[in-house]
């Protein structure tokens, strides 16, 4: 059995009926997921596998997720947040849950929660309840959603909107590693962390400018993403 929770409403599909649907949907892939991730060769499965294995992640929060459900292949409890109108239909479609069940790498039944809201507003999740907070290509998630991350929980963040820069300066977080990417291969490294976040101009990181432009400064050394823990 698996659960999908939309705005507080739980949709449960029980084992007998689910098995029949999974067989019927065996070769089907959710259209949006296929279009935006499979066809673009950007599922990033290895990324979430190494995060799960390295940090023993039990649950995660993914603000600005769109329909990137790859984390649910490795993490049994995931909460997704997005304002795109297509997401409600995607997450309420039984094919989505069936697909996750087919691709999951754990024994537990998956639990999927989707919140159709702006992550800068309050999300109906408990404070300090998540092992993992994901910030990829979606704005200042480290700023607005850190309250949902447990102490010693893991933040993975890139700098596409300057969020990694904000996390680096935020005393709530401590940088412990970087993610290096080569195609579909991802690697965690904790070497020479003091060489990151050095601006090309030599000037300090300008938080006000980042928040105004939603762009990080140019750095002398970059990674695909950065790993922080909440302190």
Distance between the termini: 36 Å
Beta strand count: 10
Helix fraction by DSSP (H/I, runs of at least 4): 25-40%
Q: What characteristic shape results from the CA principal axes?
A: globular
The low-pLDDT segments are none
Rg result: 18 Å
Number of domains: 2
User: What is the structural class?
Assistant: alpha/beta
Oligomer: single chain
Looking across the biggest beta sheet, what order are the strands in? Answer: 2-1-5-4-3-6-7-10-8-9
Largest sheet: 10 strands, mixed
| Overall pLDDT level | 93
Helix tally? 8
Strand content of the residues, in percent? 25-35%
Order of helices and strands: EEHHHEEHHEEHEHEEHE
Please give a structural write-up.
With 231 residues, the chain is α/β, with parallel strands linked by helices. The chain has two domains: 1-115, no CATH class; 126-137 and 149-231, no CATH class. Helix content is 28%, strand content 26%. The protein contains eight helices and ten strands. The chain has helices at 15-24, 31-38, 45-55, 86-92, 94-103, 141-145, 163-169, 207-213, and strands spanning 2-6, 9-13, 59-63, 77-81, 111-115, 130-135, 149-157, 173-182, 185-189, 225-230. A ten-stranded mixed sheet has the order 2-1-5-4-3-6-7-10-8-9, with helices on both faces. A hairpin with a 2-residue loop joins strand 1 and strand 2 (9-13). It is globular and about 60 Å long. The model has no long low-confidence stretch (mean pLDDT 93).
């Amino acid at each position: 059995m698996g659960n999908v929770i939309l705005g507080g409403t739980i949709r449960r599909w029980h084992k007998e009926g689910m098995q029949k649907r999974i067989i019927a949907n065996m070769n089907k892939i959710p259209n949006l997921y296929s279009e935006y991730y499979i066809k673009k060769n950007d599922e990033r499965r290895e990324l979430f596998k190494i995060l799960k294995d390295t940090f023993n992640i039990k649950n995660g929060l993914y603000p600005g997720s769109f329909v990137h459900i790859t984390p649910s292949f490795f993490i049994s409890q995931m909460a997704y947040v997005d304002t795109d109108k297509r997401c409600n239909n995607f997450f309420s479609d039984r094919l989505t849950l069936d697909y996750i069940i087919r691709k999951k790498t754990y024994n537990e039944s998956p639990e999927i929660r989707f919140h159709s809201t702006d992550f800068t507003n309050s999300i109906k999740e408990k404070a300090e309840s998540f092992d993992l907070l994901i910030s990829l290509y979606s704005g200042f998630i480290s700023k607005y959603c850190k309250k949902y991350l447990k102490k010693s929980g893991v933040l993975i963040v890139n700098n596409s909107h300057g969020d990694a820069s904000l996390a680096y300066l935020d005393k709530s977080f401590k940088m412990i590693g970087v993610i290096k990417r080569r195609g579909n291969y991802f690697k965690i490294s904790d070497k020479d962390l003091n060489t990151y976040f050095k601006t090309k101009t030599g000037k300090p990181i300008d938080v006000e400018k980042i928040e105004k432009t939603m762009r990080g400064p140019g750095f002398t050394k970059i990674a695909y993403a950065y790993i922080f823990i909440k302190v």
